[in-house]
Design a protein that fits this description.
Layout lengths: L9 H36 L6 H17 L4 H23 L9
Helix pairs in contact: 1-3, 2-3
């Protein structure tokens, strides 16, 4: 790993970005494994895929982390809401659409 300030060429920067992208994909795969497990646990408990208080908790967590790392919280929130929506759709694939939303 070469730190950003140590990169002396675009080739080095691109190689490091590619490395980070591989790591991010691996982390998304790990997160997805937890989503898949959550769906298997939620089914017998009759829990919906979308639990609004948890969604908002996750969003607040990532906004806080974005701020800590000097990233724009609004942008990170938009990215994470897309990720959350994808994750919920994946859970619904296991649970079925009738368990996609919390009861009103």
């Amino acid at each position: 790993m070469t730190r950003p300030e140590e990169c002396g060429s675009m080739a080095e920067i691109r190689a490091e970005i590619d490395r980070v992208d591989r790591e991010l994909v691996a982390l998304f795969a790990e997160r997805t494994a937890y989503i898949d497990r959550a769906a298997r646990i939620k089914g017998p408990l009759k829990l919906p895929a979308r639990i609004v208080p948890r969604v908002e908790e996750v969003v607040e967590n990532v906004r806080r982390e974005a701020d800590v790392h000097g990233l724009p919280p609004d942008l990170i929130e938009k990215l994470w809401r897309r990720l959350i929506d994808w994750s919920i759709a994946r859970e619904e694939g296991v649970l079925g659409p009738e368990w996609g939303e919390e009861p009103k």
